[in-house]
Amino acid sequence: MVWIKIGVFILGVLLGGILNSFITWWPQEEEGSGPQAACPHCGHSWYGLEKVRLWGLVFSQGRCHYCGDHVPLRYILVELATGVLLVLAFSRGKGTVDMFRLLAFILLLVPLFFIDLKHHRLPNILTLPGIGLGLLLSASLGQIRSSILGALTGGGLLFIASIATRGGLGMGDAKLQAMVGAFLGLKAMLISLAIGVILGGIVAFILLALQVRGRKDMIPYGPFLITGALLVSLVIVTG
Ligand SMILES: [Zn+2]
Questions:
Q1: Could you give the CA distance from residue 43 to residue 78 in angstroms, rounded to a whole number?
Q2: Distance from the alpha carbon of residue 21 to the mean position of ligand 1, in angstroms
Q3: How many whole angstroms from 106 Cα to the centroid of ligand 1?
Q4: Cβ(40)–Cβ(24) under 8 Å?
Q5: Sign of the dihedral defined by the CA atoms of residues 59, 61, 62, 64, in that order
Q6: Of the four, 24, 62, 189, 190, which is 20 to 30 A from 134 by CA?
Q7: What's the CA-to-centroid distance between 37 and ligand 1, angstroms?
Q8: Distance from CA of residue 34 to its chain's centroid?
Q9: Closest CA to 177 of 162, 186, 189, 195
Q10: What is the 68 CA–ligand 1 centroid distance (Å)?
């Protein structure tokens, strides 16, 4: 069992490397080049194991092989997070389809988390197909009713919130929460939303109190909604 988990972790790290390429590449999609594993400093493409930054951390002190510059910490975080989350999904999933649903959910949420932190945007290219995929996978598990209700309620609540806060919360957050509802169903989506709102409130309060951020600064909300969704789907037992 331990060896399988190590295998799943390594698979997660490799998938995290692919997610890193996507996170770095977005939003340059209009340039017509696909996501590539390349150094953010010198632009040199990475090949084979060079792409796995966790490996690079051990064997080249986290530096790029070509320019010797430090690769941003985010690369390591994405690989570690994807590895750990995949091991949790493997322990938590009930059957092949459920496991695949969790895997797809993680591979959508990790890039959304880091792209929202960096660009304050939640790309449609992830959320919209995500809503469809969540509905489809939930339907094949016989949970289509809860999935549709979850998507409509999650999207609807945050749509109202985005109008009420005049863009403090964006439409991207509404599409994200619709996706969370499609994957988790109504009840788990509501719990994840509550966790996200509380977490976001606490962190915003701390940032304001420490004057790291001012009242008018934008604090992206996606990472809190995503943390709530990951906790509910992988850690907290909702019954
Ligand atoms: Zn480099």
A1: 20
A2: 14
A3: 28
A4: yes
A5: negative
A6: 24
A7: 11
A8: 20
A9: 189
A10: 6
* pTM reported for the whole predicted model: 0.92
Ligand 1 centroid distance, CA of 41 (Å): 5
pLDDT in tens, the chain (239 residues): 899 999 999 999 999 999 998 898 887 654 556 677 788 788 888 887 777 777 777 777 778 878 888 888 899 999 999 999 999 999 998 889 999 999 999 999 999 999 999 899 999 999 999 999 999 999 999 999 999 999 999 999 999 998 988 877 889 999 999 999 999 999 999 999 999 999 999 998 898 888 877 767 778 899 999 999 999 999 887 65
The alpha carbon of 81 and the centre of ligand 1 are apart by a number of angstroms equal to 23
Ligand 1 center from residue 63 Cα (angstroms): 8
**Taking the domains of the chain in order of start, what are their residue ranges?**
1-92, 96-239
